[in-house]
């Protein structure tokens, strides 16, 4: 589909192709096929090409050849089950291997195989939703195989809360888009559409009950569309909320970069903190490895590649020692959730870092968009897989908390898209966010409250 040759159905694997969806700020890249290709000229598709027996390798080759993006500019999110379909017009039975990649930029270089490109919400692939743009066959089906889902959000143990909250908004957006497209054949059903989308929103809230930012942003979509209460309203609200969420996270990072000094300490992987560090480029950065996934090591490697900072990685157990012995000007951490009293729920180890920094007189900045403020006083702490700590046969109780709670009186400020807030200001933000919950039965939560471990982590 993306090679500069005509289709030869007699050749080995000539019907097997890869299709990659590159995602940036919630949009995906569409490419219009030029007259230089053998099939589907003038139609829009993803990055595609013949699989040549190794789809996982070939897809990266196609991305480089068709967009000019090298491997470090894209990161694989997931691959999906192949889409098989017959096209009688060209007498070919296609097998499409779909992939989803996150992309750091929208700047690409077209090859001769395409003559135009656009970044669009994936729902624009649907008939009766986006512009009148003819796409290659089964493009939406291929996207659905790799699109975010309630299941993928519940099982994701790698990404932070802000990232997952945007994925939750994409789930709502995509389903609302499907319902809008179905109106062309089934007609509108406002009540049925609202009921289905409200049920989906409830499942998203249950997927990660400890993540306030996911809860607040899903509530914002539904609250912003309940006047009309139908699929088009939810679709428009989801698109608007995705842009708002991404802007808030970027603005919080930009604000935080102004607070950073020459030498900083951090842990885990917060996309907002990473963006702040890359923007400010402190002379020295100390990063705790952040077991069990050791995502702190990935942060250290990234900073060593993208900044001129001198980066040191160390064990979690050495946190207090490093803060006491090294010349560190500020500690900076992300937040999974900020409670109404200003205390912070974040990756386990944050409490150790912050209390040790407070003991040494080192100011502590928590970087979080205001949507990360919880409307609830209670804490729901997820736990990780016990085998990450101990996989032996002895009768030993295993504790593997994923998150811990840092007291507000150890935090200097919470840096948000609105600027730096003192912990005592957080209660006012929580009150604003409670208003977004009124779409749910008078504000009563439909989410099952649990305090045990998250089954998705087992």
UniProtKB/TrEMBL annotation:
Coiled coil: none annotated. Residues 437-458 are annotated as: Disordered. CDD domains: NUDIX_eIF-2B (cd18872). GO terms for molecular function: S-methyl-5-thioribose-1-phosphate isomerase activity. Residues 13-148 form the Nudix hydrolase domain. One of its GO terms (biological process) is L-methionine salvage from methylthioadenosine. InterPro entries: IF-2B-related, IF_2B-like_C, NagB/RpiA_transferase-like, NUDIX_hydrolase-like_dom_sf, NUDIX_hydrolase_dom. Belongs to the eIF-2B alpha/beta/delta subunits family. This is NUDIX domain-containing protein. It comes from Natrinema salsiterrestre.
């Amino acid at each position: 589909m993306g090679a500069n040759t005509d289709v030869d159905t007699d050749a080995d694997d000539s019907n097997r192709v890869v299709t990659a969806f590159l995602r940036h700020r919630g949009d995906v890249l569409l490419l219009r096929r030029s007259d230089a290709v053998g099939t589907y000229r003038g139609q829009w598709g993803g990055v595609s090409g013949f699989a040549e027996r190794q789809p996982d390798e070939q897809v990266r080759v196609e991305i480089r050849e068709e967009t000019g993006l090298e491997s470090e500019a894209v990161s694989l999110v997931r691959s999906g089950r192949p889409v098989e379909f017959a096209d009688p017009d060209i007498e070919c039975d296609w097998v499409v291997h779909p992939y989803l990649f996150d992309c750091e930029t929208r700047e690409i270089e077209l090859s001769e195989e395409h003559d135009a490109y656009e970044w669009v919400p994936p729902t624009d692939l649907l008939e009766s939703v986006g512009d009148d743009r003819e796409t290659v066959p089964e493009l939406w089906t291929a996207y659905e195989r790799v699109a975010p889902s309630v299941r993928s959000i519940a099982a994701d143990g790698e990404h932070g809360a802000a990232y997952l909250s945007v994925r939750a908004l994409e789930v709502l957006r995509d389903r609302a888009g499907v319902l809008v497209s179905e109106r062309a054949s089934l007609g509108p059903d406002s009540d049925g559409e609202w009921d289905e989308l409200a049920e989906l929103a409830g499942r998203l809230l249950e997927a990660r009950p400890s993540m306030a930012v996911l809860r607040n942003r899903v509530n914002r979509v539904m609250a912003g569309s309940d006047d009309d209460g139908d699929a088009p309203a939810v679709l428009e609200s989801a698109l608007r909320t995705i842009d708002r969420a991404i802007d808030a996270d970027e603005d919080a990072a930009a604000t935080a970069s102004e607070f950073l000094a020459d030498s900083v300490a951090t842990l885990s992987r917060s996309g907002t903190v990473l963006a702040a560090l890359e923007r400010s480029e402190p002379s020295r950065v100390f990063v705790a490895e952040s077991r069990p996934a050791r995502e702190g090591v990935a942060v250290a490697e990234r900073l060593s590649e993208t900044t001129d900072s001198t980066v040191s990685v160390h064990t979690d157990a050495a946190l207090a020692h490093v803060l006491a012995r090294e010349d560190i000007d500020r500690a900076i951490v992300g937040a999974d959730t900020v409670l109404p009293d200003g205390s912070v729920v974040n990756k386990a180890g944050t409490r150790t870092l912050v209390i040790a920094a407070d003991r040494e007189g080192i100011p502590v900045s928590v970087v979080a968009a205001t949507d990360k403020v919880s409307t609830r006083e209670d804490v729901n702490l997820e736990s990780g897989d016990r085998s990450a700590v101990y996989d032996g046969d002895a009768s030993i109780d295993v504790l593997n908390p994923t998150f811990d709670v840092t007291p507000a009186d150890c935090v200097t400020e919470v840096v948000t898209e609105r600027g730096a807030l003192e912990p005592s200001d957080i209660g006012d933000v929580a009150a604003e966010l409670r208003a977004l919950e009124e779409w749910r039965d008078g504000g009563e939560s439909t989410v099952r409250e649990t305090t045990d471990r998250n089954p998705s982590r087992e």
